[in-house]
Amino acid sequence: MKKEENIKLGISIGDLNGIGAEIVLRIFEDNRMLDFCTPIIFASIKTMSFVKNHFKLNINLNGIHNVAQAIPGRVNVLNCWKENVIIKFGQEDKKIGAYSIKSLEEATKALKENTIDVLVTAPINKHNIQSESFKFPGHTDYLNQELEGDSLMFMVSEGLRVGLLTDHVPVKDVATHITPELIEKKVETVYNSLKQDFKINKPKIAVLGINPHTGDNGVIGEEDDTVLRPTLQKIKASGKLVFGPYAADSFFGSDNYKNFDAIIASYHDQGLIPFKTLSFGQGVNYTAGLNRVRTSPDHGTAYEIAGKGTADVNSFKEAIFTGIHIFNNRNEYQELNKNPLRFSKRKI
Questions:
Q1: pLDDT at 197
Q2: How many other CB atoms sit within 10 Å of the CB of residue 91?
Q3: How big is the CA angle at 269 (ends 263 and 275), to the nearest 5 degrees?
Q4: Which helix (H) or strand (E) holds 66?
Q5: Is 10 in contact with 42 (CB distance < 8 Å)?
Q6: Which residue from 196, 189, 245 is spatially nearest to 216, judged by alpha carbons?
Q7: What's CA 285's distance to the chain center, in Å?
Q8: Which distant-in-sequence residues (6+ apart) come within 8 Å of 268 by Cβ?
Q9: Strand partners, 206
Q10: 179 vs 67, 109, 209, 223, 229, CA distance in Å?
Q11: What pTM was computed for the model?
Q12: What is the pLDDT of residue 4?
């Protein structure tokens, strides 16, 4: 297993008109962070020097042209472009969106090739990244295409983990997307992630209902009774500790969530509103289910405060530590399960 300082942490720089670049440099202005990883920022030395000077940061940047040139103990910037980039903090700009995708594509390539160990993605603007060559609603869908496995948006913090059956799906389409096959796949992904990424041997998982009050016996929708409940019973019969469906409106307020290792919500806002209410500023978006480790902070580009030097670094810092932690846990899990002991019968 790698020592922490030798873990190569790739960072895609996100929307340069937002708060991502500021946060990244402010985090690594603290040299103690270099004890935990070797950071590699996918951008350009010119661009990051502009950000450094704008915020008057005391940080030395090491420009490189490939990951192999990264130096431990330094803040490395891999040059993904040569031209000057005009940054206008707080403004949405298609050209800036193109640079955020260029950074993401280069970082993902390095992740696929195992030249970096963990990827942490700074926030993008989902509107200005769209083009003929990039038609994804966000990071998760793109990484699901590029990496092996089936992705699941898994929001994690101290004492709370929330996964989703459906993520970037319009509310009017949620019920039709939730099938027995999808439920089984997502529960399996959460279950496996809790075991290998978080070292929980017997995970307890709660699943929230699709309709208000889980349908009230069909009065407010039938999907909970006809699709969700029987599928969960089937999964539970296989030996997994899966419970539900629970009515979502009272589940978090009653502190019931504290009885479980993870909660699976039926749709985006059902899970993310309580998660961000309870964990905002400390939460991490982890893409579970893939063969590589990717995390991100739980906030967006925050144009309204971009360039002002007031952005909170905590969520991004947690994303870094969570990514490293999961990388180490996963390596340990794979090592322990690589060569299981085989007992042979012996004559006595």
A1: 97
A2: 14
A3: 50
A4: none
A5: yes
A6: 245
A7: 3
A8: 164, 166, 167, 168, 169
A9: 243, 263
A10: 42, 33, 13, 9, 11
A11: 0.91
A12: 63
- Look at residues 109, 102, 108, 158 and name the one whose alpha carbon lies nearest to residue 294: 108
Tokens of 25: 């440099």
Identify the three-state secondary structure at position 304. helix
Pairing of strands 293-297, 8-12: unpaired
Q: Do β-strands 204-208 and 75-79 pair in parallel, antiparallel, or remain unpaired?
A: unpaired
Alpha helix ranges (H) inside the chain = 20-28, 45-54, 94-112, 139-146, 174-177, 180-196, 223, 229-237, 248-251, 268-279, 314-338
Residue 23's nearest CA partner among 311, 283, 323, 322 is 311
Hey, which residues does 8 pair with through a beta bridge?
38
The set of residues, in sequence order, having a beta carbon less than 8 Å from that of 215 and lying 6+ positions away, is 209, 221, 222, 223, 224, 225
Is 165 exposed, middle or buried, given 0-12, 13-18 or 19+ CB atoms closer than 10 A? buried
Whether residue 208 contacts residue 178, with contact meaning beta carbons closer than 8 Å, is answered with: no
Q: Which of 30-39, 73-82, 339-348 has the lowest mean pLDDT?
A: 339-348
CA dihedral 190, 193, 194, 198 (to 10 degrees): -150
How sure is the predictor about 340, in pLDDT bands with cuts at 50, 70 and 90?
A: low
- Can you tell me the distance from the alpha carbon of 211 to that of 248, in angstroms, rounded to the nearest whole number? 9
- In b/e form, how buried is each residue of 111-141, taking b as 16+ CB within 10 angstroms? bbeeebbbbbbbbbbbebbeeeeeebebbbe
Contact partners, residue 74, CB within 8 Å, separation at least 6: 34, 38, 60, 62
Give the lowest-confidence range in 22-36, 106-120, 131-145: 131-145
Question: Would you tell me how many other CB atoms lie within 10 Å of the CB of residue 277?
Answer: 9
